[in-house]
Write a structure and sequence with these properties.
Layout (H helix, E strand, L loop, with lengths): L10 E2 L2 E2 L9 E3 L12 H17 L6 H14 L6 E3 L1 H9 L4 E4 L2 E6 L2 E7 L4 H5 L6 E5 L2 E2 L5 H8 L6 E7 L7 E6 L1 E4 L3 E7 L2 E6 L6 H15 L6 E5 L6 E2 H11 L4 E7 L7 E3 L11 E5 L6 H11 L4 E4 L7 E7 L5 E10 L15 E2 L34 H5 L4 H7 L9 H18 L3
Parallel strand pairs: 3-21, 14-15, 15-19, 19-20, 20-23
Antiparallel strand pairs: 1-16, 2-6, 4-22, 5-12, 6-7, 7-8, 8-9, 8-10, 10-11, 13-14, 17-18, 17-22, 21-22
Helix pairs in contact: 6-7, 7-8
Length: 446
């Protein structure tokens, strides 16, 4: 992986319970020498008047620290769903939040219209076991209404000592009455990479999240599957469904594992140091054998980077439904009092120059819902980046109708219903069948 010219901590995911804040493509940076714009005196005078009125007339005494911190939080949260203020404790948790082990429920969430919405449950966590689904709208935490809470406050409420319980009151698309789901908190240990053989010579590799060591683990998994068949691995299904993202470096490493050369991902922003470019090194772990990548509406950020890179280089067939559309970069700026701000500073672009933001990755092959067994995975109305209040525009000169309207087309909604199962994993079966066909074509030289 090409290293940036300055010290960076680059992350690409959403808010994971147990980690106190969104790590949505974040960069740890120092821009203390950046040129400040002239201060808007009229607006600052208005701010001062409001501050003074609150101090003088609010029903209870309000201390300066609380008021000013609240003003900073409001200023950042008003920009887009991923910019935020991090107090000292939140900043510390950010710095250890990608270790793969943390306390909480195991769901990736965002804020929408004052409520907490589930982007994706994490594999093998209490939330997934309890039946929490992507697209669920959390309206109460125990007896406390979520409306009016900040996202960080909601996360703190959902956290707690492992073994203790919390009841989530949830609104779900297609269900008339609110659902009450009681979850026992636990220490979340996220296993980033899982693999197995589907059929002789055909491998299955699932990445649940992108952590620091994910790239190395993917190479090890591929090596072990190849050894099982004397180096003759005919193809691979790479499963990125419901993967909320993680460390950008890991997404680059996974893409690099299957690409011989070329651009993997690049970012563009207003500041010069927000522009980063990552290119592949020689060497393909599969030696050119076919890959099918499974994605859905829960595939976000780092997952979309991998899918976009492999798609643009025509290295893999992308199958499933349109991805989440988290294509912005957040930079972490440490402050003098050991707090920090997380500010959206750039957008991700695929090698072909496509912005992921609010559009996502459209699969090469869309899997429609199968009606033989009614799907209950909430895929029909998944929360997308474009659904988040105040989301960034795509940034392309030619915007799609979805980006203009903030709505999905009929086809996009149908694409979203792609994870129905017929006795077992329908999407995986379709991916395996496609993989076999690709191997036959490749072996015949077509």
């Amino acid at each position: 992986m090409k290293q940036a010219t300055r010290s960076l901590l680059v992350l690409a995911t959403g808010l994971v319970l147990g980690v106190s804040l969104t790590l949505g493509g974040s960069v740890l940076a120092d821009r203390s020498n950046s040129q400040a714009a002239p201060l808007p005196l009229d607006e600052l005078r208005n701010f001062s008047e409001v501050f003074g009125k609150i101090k003088a007339d609010y029903v209870e005494a309000a201390d300066d620290k609380t008021l000013l911190e609240g003003a900073i939080r409001g200023m950042l949260s008003g920009l887009d769903p991923h910019s935020a203020y991090l107090n000292q404790d939140e900043f510390k948790e950010l710095q250890v939040g990608t270790s793969g082990e943390f306390g909480g429920l195991g769901i990736e969430v965002g804020m929408e219209d004052g409520f907490v919405k589930v982007v994706s449950p994490i594999d093998d966590t209490p939330a997934q076991a309890a039946g929490v689904k992507a697209g669920d709208l959390i309206i109460r935490l125990d007896d406390t209404p979520v409306k009016g809470m900040t996202l960080n406050d909601a996360v703190k409420t959902m956290r707690g000592k492992p073994g203790t319980q919390i009841t989530l009151t949830i609104m779900r698309e297609g269900v008339q009455k609110p659902l009450k789901i009681t979850i026992t908190r636990d220490v979340i240990r996220v296993k980033s990479v899982k693999f197995r053989t589907l059929e002789p010579g055909y491998g299955y590799l699932r990445i649940t999240s992108f952590q620091t060591q994910t790239g190395d683990q993917v190479l090890k998994a591929v090596s072990e599957m190849k050894k099982e068949y004397d180096g003759n691995l005919k193809g691979l299904v790479l499963d990125l469904r419901n993967n909320p993202g993680g460390v950008l470096g890991a997404a680059v490493a996974v893409s690099d594992a299957f690409l011989e050369k070329g651009m993997i991902v690049y970012t563009e922003g207003r500041a010069k140091d927000a522009e980063l470019r990552y290119t592949a090194n020689p060497g393909d772990a599969l030696s050119g054998e076919p890959i099918v990548v499974l994605v859905n509406g829960g595939s976000a950020s780092a997952s979309e980077i991998v899918a976009g890179a492999l798609q643009d280089h025509k290295r893999a067939i992308i199958m499933g439904s349109r991805t989440f559309g988290k294509g912005s970069v957040q930079t972490i700026f440490p402050m003098s009092n050991n707090s920090a701000i997380k500010l959206t500073t750039a957008r991700y672009y695929t090698p072909g120059g496509r912005s992921i933001q609010a559009d996502g990755i459209v699969p090469d092959i869309t899997l429609r819902a199968v009606k033989l067994v009614e799907a209950e995975d909430g895929e029909g109305e998944r929360l997308k980046e474009a659904d988040l209040s105040g989301h960034l525009a795509n940034g392309n000169n030619k915007k799609s109708k979805e980006a203009k309207d903030g709505k999905e087309t009929k086809d996009a909604k149908e694409e979203a219903k792609s994870d129905a199962t017929v006795g077992q994993d329908y999407a995986l079966n379709e991916a395996l069948n496609l993989l076999k066909g690709l191997h036959i074509l490749q072996s015949s030289g077509q």
